Amino acid sequence: MNETTDAIRPPEPDFSVITPEELLVYRAVENRFRASAAARAIIGEPHAGAAIDWQEIALPDRALPVRVYRPAPTGGDEAGARTELPLVVHVHGGGFVGTATQCDWTNSHLAARLPALVVSVEHRLLAPDSPLSSAVDDGWDALRHVVRHAERWGVDPARVAVFGESCGALISALTAIRAREAGLRLRAQVLVNLAVDVTDAMFDHPSIAQYAYQPSRALPLLRYVQRLAVPPGADAGVLSPLHADDLSGLAPALVVVPTRDAVADHGRRYAERLSQAGSPVRLSEYTGAKHAFLTLPGVEPQAEAAQAEILAFLRTALAT
Q1: Which residues are catalytically annotated?
Q2: Is residue 201 included in any domain, yes or no?
Q3: How far apart are CA 229 and CA 196, in angstroms?
Q4: Domain range for residue 86?
Q5: What is the count of structural domains for the chain?
Q6: How far apart are the first and last CA of the chain?
Q7: Residue 10 lies in a domain
Q8: 62-100, pLDDT tens digit by residue?
C-alpha cells in the first residue's frame, strides 16, 4: 500500500496461460509501479488541497485498508477538521491487480473541490482463493461501517454516494443494490467504464468483438477475470448487476462509457436497464476514449472532462 519513490512497470503477461504464482508476482510489481512517483506522469498528481492517508477499518473478521482523502486546512479555515462532510465511497478498478493509489488524481480533486470525505476501498483482489464475492463484501462493508460511525469519520450519513471504475464499478453497482435492500439511502452512484456481467453472456456484446484485441488485448484479460471472479459452482448472476431481478428504487446514476472499450456495451445496457426500471440515470459517452481513461490523465485527454462531469454530478447530488 505504501507509495514508492520509483519503480519499473512490468510487461503485461499472457493472461491465457498465466499461472497463479505468476499472477502474484505480476500483481506485486505492477501495483508497486502504480504507487510510485514514476507513475504520476500517467496517473496524475494529487490535488494539493487534499490530505491523503491510509487507514484500516476494523471489521469483526478482518482489517480492511482504505485510502482516505479529506479537504486539507487552508489558512485559518480548519477544513481538515470539518464534520458532516458528504461521503463518497470509491472502489478502484483492476480486478486481479490494482490499488486505490492509482485513483489519487480524481479522488483528491473530489475531496478538495466538493468538498467531501472520499474513502477508497483497497478491496481483496481476484485470485484462485479470492473470488469476486470477497471484493463485493469489502465494498459493502466499508460503506456500512463508515455510515454507522459517521460522527467518528466526520461525515453526514444522509449525503452518501458510491463511485467505482471497471470492476470497481461492478462492486459499486452491487453495493447500491444492497444499500437499497438494507434501507440505506444513497444520493448517487457513479459508474465508470463498468463491467456489470460476469456470466457467460458477458462476451455477447458487439463492443467485445470490436475491441477484443485493440486498442489492448482485452478479451484474454476479461476471460481471466471471469475465471477468477466466479469459482466453479458459484452463481455468476448474483454477481452481475446487469441480470439483477429488480433495479428500481436505486440511487440516481451517472454511467460513464469510453467508446473504444470492450465493455462499452456493458455500460450502455446497464443504463438502459436502470432507465426501464425507473431509476434515474444519465449515460455519458466519451468518443474515442479507452478503458480506464479516467485514471490516465497523463495520456488520455478526455480524463479532465470526465472528472469535471463527475464533480458536477456529485456536487448536485450531495448538496445539503
Answers
A1: 166, 261, 291
A2: yes
A3: 12
A4: 20-317
A5: 1
A6: 34
A7: no
A8: 999 999 999 998 765 554 467 799 999 999 999 999 999
Phi, psi of 239 (to 5 degrees): -100, 15
Report the alpha-carbon distance of residue 44 to residue 298 in Å, rounded: 6
Which of 12-16, 51-55, 307-311 is predicted with the least confidence, judged by mean pLDDT?
Answer: 12-16
Contact 207, 261 (CB under 8 A): yes
On whether the CB atoms of residues 50 and 113 are closer than 8 A, the answer is no
The CA distance from 106 to 148, in Å, is: 25
**H/E element holding 214?**
none
Element (H, E) at 110: helix 104-113
Q: Is residue 26 part of a domain?
A: yes
Q: Is residue 85 part of a domain?
A: yes
Amino acid at the residue 80: G
Give me the CATH number covering residue 296.
3.40.50.1820
Beta bridge partners, 254, equal 190, 282
Extended beta strands in the chain, E state: 50-58, 63-71, 85-91, 117-121, 155-165, 188-192, 253-260, 281-290
